[in-house]
(S)-3-amino-2-methylpropionate transaminase (Micrococcus flavus), 444 residues
Amino acid sequence: MAVPTQTRPPLEQSRHLTDAMPGPQSQALAERQKAAVPAGVAATMPVFAARAEGGIIEDVDGNRLIDLGAGIAVTSVGASHPKVVQAVQEQVASFTHTCFMVTPYEGYVAVAEKLGEKAPLSGETRTALFNSGAEAVENAVKVARAFTGKQAVAAFDHAYHGRTTLTMALTAKSMPYKHSFGPFAPEVYRVPGSYPLRDGLDGATAARHAISALEKQIGADNLAAVIMEPIQGEGGFIVPAQGFLPAIVDWCRANDVLFIADEVQSGFARTGTWFASETEGIEPDLMTTAKGIAGGMPLSAVTGRAEIMDAVHPGGLGGTYGGNPVACAAALAVLEAIEEDGLLGRAQMIERVIREHFERHLDERIGEIRGRGAMMALEFVDPATGEPDAALTGAVAAAARRAGVVLLTCGTYGNVVRFLPPLVISEELLREGLGVVSEALAAA
Ligand SMILES: Cc1ncc(COP(=O)(O)O)c(CNCCCC(=O)O)c1O
């Protein structure tokens, strides 16, 4: 029998392991999962969640884990922020759904207004709401094609944009995202990006290489849009060399090509500013957002300059659930919490703590500590050759998870440990989790 949330005691913010992980309840659920869910839906942790709050996830057997994943950069305000819980409870008691394309409601409009205020776009903006990051990317491409009358779209090496047919075409890494699922959408092209640790190029030089490919292999006259994550997420938390992104955006502006900033993973205070584009000094034409937008409720958005977004004919954008009212209520609560709880500053503090910790626990196998705000990563390499070390990465992550830390990896080469804690995690818990990772590395 679920305990009503208003009487539920706060979840203790400490790591606690019972005598087994996974415990008996998780083991039983794993058996049920095997009998009902396809193996293609793979889980990282061997336990099943019962509660999550602040920086802790409690599993069904009473293990409390330090959460350094935030459900892949989603629960930035925590997985049960009181404001979000209250907003969701009030909305769900009024109505769960009318379909905005049928009977609209204020929450959708209010979210669009807020995103227009916060987005790093000057002038009038418009926002359309969807459910997932991939759906937002799909629709940003539709808008770009409608506005420019051109079809080609360019993405970068190491990009990740989703798992739908078009977004798989935009995504770089084959396994597990694309393998065996082709053919992919046409008129999608890939150009070299900026990966300073591996290409050793400054921003201007890397941009020249990308622009040469854009011009010679695709042609600006055919190109509707260039899409890039300001910090590449699944590809390895790759921060492009300074100057790269502004050079690409300048080229786009000079050649009537739209620039789409995919801020699905880097948005909503994750990198210490509202959006990572701000720090890169770029103003996108279109921006896709999701993940941190609504505290775990499924919601995504395309925000763009009004003249671009309004190029789409009436009825051209939509979908049954897009901008669900409960998700919009959650999003409005999240946007308030980000400001009231000072989460931009907390993300900056998290970066300082992570950098200071690993600068104190140096290891020659750490090829680079990189990222921004609470989107930080370690790239593991063979110190003799600089080659990616995926085996070490897997061993460190597995050991940390066994010790009760939810830890994610990423990277084209599978050799990046990433830190995506909820922005509300206590400094004490964060430091404890980082200590577990350092101990796992020392023992590997
Ligand atoms: C930049 C960027 N754009 C788009 C997406 C896609 O967002 P959806 O909400 O997962 O569709 C992402 C999702 N990243 C996590 C994917 C996890 C997995 O599926 O294994 C992203 O990071």
Remarks:
- The mean pLDDT is 97.
- The first strand starts at residue 49 and ends at 53.
- The pocket of PLZ is lined by residues 72, 132-134, 137, 160-163, 229, 233-234, 262, 264-265, 290 (CB under 6 Å).
- DSSP finds 15 helices and 15 strands in the chain.
